[in-house]
């Protein structure tokens, strides 16, 4: 039960907000506050009707000898029916998504001891479609990394070359798919976290249009960047899963733009793609100090397949793409600090369903265990707090305005072509650096995002598909489409896949 604030509390709070109160004012405010607190007592005693833990086998921690790549966070075998569109499929769920009765670490030691009380919408839909939830896949520490080196309790290894990263922050997903330990995985993507591991592990990963897949029940970072999406070894399985998880749930405020009627994504794979227009995005290649020319060349060469399929291919230019990562940074830094640090993952100003158990646990854990935050999280906290102190959110607000300009620039290009194509990541999977300095640890967590993060900011659907190998490791090609036209991306990706393009890398011969 909330206690009445003391007079000293009110003086302290007034001072923190740059005004002073005299004794008479304190007395008047105390009377008003006492009346308001009666409502909070009522709220405390009312049920919010949240669905609690289901009666099921909650699984177990993975055995080390059966977790060779460090990719499983928790093992389960949860089924609720023996038929449906996903019957026979084994699904891995990124460990920032709630599965009732199962621990949720989100890659961080500070979450040790937390157990989700209810299924996320995507989990409920997957189970209703007859799939088996095979377990939770390790994520990077609070999802603040595109590598696979910051996760608790240890790094995730790439099955194609265990000296290399699997990519993040859905690092466990990529590794489990590459190792054939699950059929489909659900990841989160705020800066590229579905597409980066897809690129580095040689699998397919789709970040859908913003809001298409409900985020309800997943650990938020910044609502205007939050996405969930499927990862799989084949385009067919991506489409199959999207048919199951896409659509409004009435609980997620991110879904304001989502159409009420959606196509069958699996049926769309059969569409005739001849005559579609492909735009090779000039600015998506040749990132100074980042891009591997061999990766750029491999993606350009792969686009010749589109010509063979009867599509037209030309280079297009979106100069503002060069500033996409800057706009994303302006949103992600202060946005993540406000949501995850200041506001304890509460969606203020939103009618979205709130996870009270998660909010309360995280609030306390953050206060007691902040020293355990990873360097990447601490970096966001330091800069986000500083910016809020110095500018009061002005740069965040301007970045949100620039998002509209960035989105319009891509929309203009997509009025002239049907899809945009570029490398998903500027390089293939880099090597783990276990002795890296603090600065290097943060650098290798963020230096693979120049093409991916911008489409989290604009909300365009973007899919990574393997298109070649360089040095024995897979190269991801990213296909970007118009908002809520995933069916076009998937049809193109399926046609590309059927041409026999390599679906994975091999063990690197550069040992």
UniProtKB/TrEMBL annotation:
Keywords: Hydrolase, Transferase. Residues 71-490 form the Amidase domain. GO terms for molecular function: hydrolase activity; transferase activity. The keyword Nucleotidyltransferase does not apply. InterPro entries: Amidase (IPR000120), Amidase_CS (IPR020556), Amidase_dom (IPR023631), AS_sf (IPR036928). Hydrolyzes indole-3-acetamide (IAM) into indole-3-acetic acid (IAA). This is Indoleacetamide hydrolase.
């Amino acid at each position: 039960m909330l206690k009445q604030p003391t007079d000293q509390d009110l003086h302290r709070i007034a001072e923190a907000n740059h005004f002073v109160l005299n004794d008479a004012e304190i007395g008047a405010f105390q009377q008003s506050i006492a009346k308001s607190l009666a409502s909070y007592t009522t709220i405390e005693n009312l049920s919010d009707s949240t669905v609690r833990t289901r009666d099921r086998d909650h699984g177990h921690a993975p055995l080390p000898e059966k977790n060779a790549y460090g990719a499983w966070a928790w093992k389960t075998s949860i089924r609720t029916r023996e038929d449906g569109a996903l019957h026979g499929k084994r699904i891995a769920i990124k460990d920032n998504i709630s599965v009732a009765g199962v621990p949720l670490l989100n890659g961080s030691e500070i979450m040790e001891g937390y157990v989700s009380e209810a299924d996320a919408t995507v989990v409920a839909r997957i189970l209703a479609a007859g799939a088996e939830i095979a377990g939770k896949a390790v994520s990077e520490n609070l999802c603040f990394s595109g590598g696979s080196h910051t996760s608790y309790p240890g790094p995730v290894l790439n099955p194609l070359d265990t000296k290399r990263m699997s990519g993040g922050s859905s690092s466990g997903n990529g590794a489990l798919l590459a190792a054939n330990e699950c059929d489909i995985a659900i990841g989160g993507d705020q800066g590229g976290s579905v597409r980066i591991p897809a690129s580095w592990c040689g699998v397919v990963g789709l970040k859908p249009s913003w809001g298409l897949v409900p985020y309800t029940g997943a650990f938020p970072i910044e609502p205007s960047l939050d996405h969930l999406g499927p990862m799989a070894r084949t385009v067919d399985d991506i489409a199959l899963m999207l048919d199951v998880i896409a659509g409004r749930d009435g609980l997620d405020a991110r879904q304001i733009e989502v159409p009420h009627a959606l196509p069958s994504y699996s049926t769309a794979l059969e569409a005739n793609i001849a005559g579609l227009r492909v735009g090779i995005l000039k600015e998506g290649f040749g990132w100074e100090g980042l891009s591997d020319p061999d990766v750029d060349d491999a993606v350009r060469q792969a686009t010749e397949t589109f010509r063979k399929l009867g599509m037209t291919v030309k280079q297009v230019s979106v100069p503002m793409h060069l500033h996409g990562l800057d706009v994303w940074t302006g949103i992600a830094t202060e946005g993540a600090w406000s949501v995850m640090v200041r506001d304890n993952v509460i969606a203020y100003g939103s009618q979205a369903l709130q996870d009270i158990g998660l909010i309360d646990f995280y609030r306390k854990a953050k206060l007691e265990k902040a020293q355990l935050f990873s360097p990447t999280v601490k970096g966001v906290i330091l800069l986000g707090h500083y910016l809020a102190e110095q500018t009061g959110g002005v740069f965040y607000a301007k970045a949100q305005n620039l998002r509209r300009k960035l989105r319009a620039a891509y929309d203009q290009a997509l009025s002239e072509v049907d899809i945009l194509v570029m490398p998903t990541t500027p390089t293939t999977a880099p090597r783990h650096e276990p002795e890296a300095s603090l600065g290097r640890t943060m650098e290798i967590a963020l230096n693979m995002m120049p093409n991916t993060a911008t489409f989290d900011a604009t909300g365009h659907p973007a899919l990574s598909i393997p298109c070649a190998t360089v040095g024995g490791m897979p190269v991801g090609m990213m296909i970007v489409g118009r908002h809520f036209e995933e069916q076009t991306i998937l049809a193109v990706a399926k046609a590309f896949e059927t041409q026999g393009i390599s679906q994975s890398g091999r063990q690197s011969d550069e040992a």
